[in-house]
Amino acid sequence: MSATTVTTPQELATANPLDDARAQLRAAVELLGYDEGTYAMLATPRREVTVGIPLRRDDGSQEVFVGHRVQHNFSRGPAKGGVRFSEHVDLDEVRALAMWMTWKCALLDVPYGGAKGGVRIDPRRYSPSELERVTRRYTSEILPVIGPDKDIPAPDIGTDERTMAWMMDTYSVSCGYTVPGVVTGKPIALGGSRGRASSTSRGVVHIALAAMESRGLTPARTSAAVQGFGKVGRGVARFLADAGVRVRAVSDVHGAIVADEGIDIPALEAHVDATGSVVGFSGAETLEESLLELDVDVLVPAAVEGVLTAENAPRVKARIVVEGANGPTSPEADMILEANDVLVVPDILANAGGVVVSYFEWAQANQTYWWSEAEVERRLAERMLTTWEQVNSYAGTRRLSLRSAAMAMAVERVVTAHGLRGLYP
Ligand code: GLU
């Protein structure tokens, strides 16, 4: 590991993500000419559950964690969204992430509302059996509000297919029969979908390539930097490199590396598998400046929310920002980037591949009929690129940024569904 002090994305992200999410909603509501009551309805989650999760540690001592499940909206179907295990989880963050899920599902036209869960725990500090106990207790605490027709959790930061297997098992044991449709992002052996693990990254790269084309950039002449080397960033780096893009820099929570001629991503993946970090990879140098401000064509923030701010946005040199993370750009940063003619492809479009294939997984599980990987990939690409075209044409005819267009399209769909159903009682 390098001795250099690094600023992690989470340290940069100081603002409250819920303020950002609500500011984006406010702008969409104003654009669409809706009233204050509509804003208030959409700014307020439908249901929030906060639970205490006691854990008996392997050494016999006890600890208690706080967990949340926020269901932001059900107008278009059951709530849907990941579960995050991180020491930075708080209720406002989960509320923001749940709201973004509502817009993402509406924009991609998957028949869900939005939800998110989180447990404030650093999963790296606990053994697999401790994490299993935390996951099962959290699941049993939120059990009354989840289910294949109610709210369907999935992986997010700090959770994975193993976490989903424990959640599905805990839920199924309580029902007395196996319910594969209660979570998505499960192992394939338990009814997970082929192509789900790589789907968010694949979707980001479909959109990045389309954005590059719209700006006249060919992969062979394009350079990129990727912030984050987890479930999203790692696949993004690999698929960009496969497409011929020169991936100049990548980072993780431990540090950032750069190679001007392009990083050999398969070799870096082997290094990360062996050491747990991108730091110390022999095929690159330590990056001393901020990865977000590097002179590249395409920047993919694929770590956490709130990393592009009014402070650093003026120094972004990339021509295209593709949001692999949820909420990486503050509204102030958005305005600065737009004024500087940086094309920002918003999270609710760019990183929607995960929930799109979650929907495919849920549909397959509910029908107990499994699709081939090629079928999943074909449908994912088709849905991402169709939505890209729709957002571009909405933005083009109304002279809007891609974020304003995507948000307006999504909010309008939710309000239409809400209007058709009516307000009860
Ligand atoms: N956690 C992912 C996201 O933020 C996936 C959610 C899901 O598949 O439900 O989009």
Automatic annotation (TrEMBL):
What molecular functions are annotated in GO for this chain?
Answer: glutamate dehydrogenase (NAD+) activity; nucleotide binding
Can you tell me which residues bind NAD(+)? 200
Record flagged with keyword Transport: no
CDD domains to which the protein is assigned, alphabetical: NAD_bind_1_Glu_DH
What residues correspond to the site Important for catalysis? 156
Segments forming domain Glutamate/phenylalanine/leucine/valine/L-tryptophan dehydrogenase C-terminal: 193-422
Specify the signal sequence span. Answer: none
Q: Which GO terms describe its biological process?
A: L-glutamate catabolic process
Task: Specify one Pfam family.
Answer: ELFV_dehydrog
Q: Which UniProt keywords apply?
A: NAD, Nucleotide-binding, Oxidoreductase
Check the record and name the InterPro entries matching this protein.
Answer: Aminoacid_DH-like_N_sf (IPR046346), Glu/Leu/Phe/Val/Trp_DH (IPR006095), Glu/Leu/Phe/Val/Trp_DH_C (IPR006096), Glu/Leu/Phe/Val/Trp_DH_dimer (IPR006097), Glu/Leu/Phe/Val_DH_AS (IPR033524), Glu_DH (IPR014362), NAD(P)-bd_dom_sf (IPR036291), NAD_bind_Glu_DH (IPR033922)
Task: List, from the UniProt record, the residues annotated as the active site of this protein.
Answer: 116
Quote the record's binding site residues for substrate. 80, 104, 358
The family classification in the record reads: Belongs to the Glu/Leu/Phe/Val dehydrogenases family.
Supply the name of the protein.
Answer: Glutamate dehydrogenase
Source species: Saccharomonospora viridis
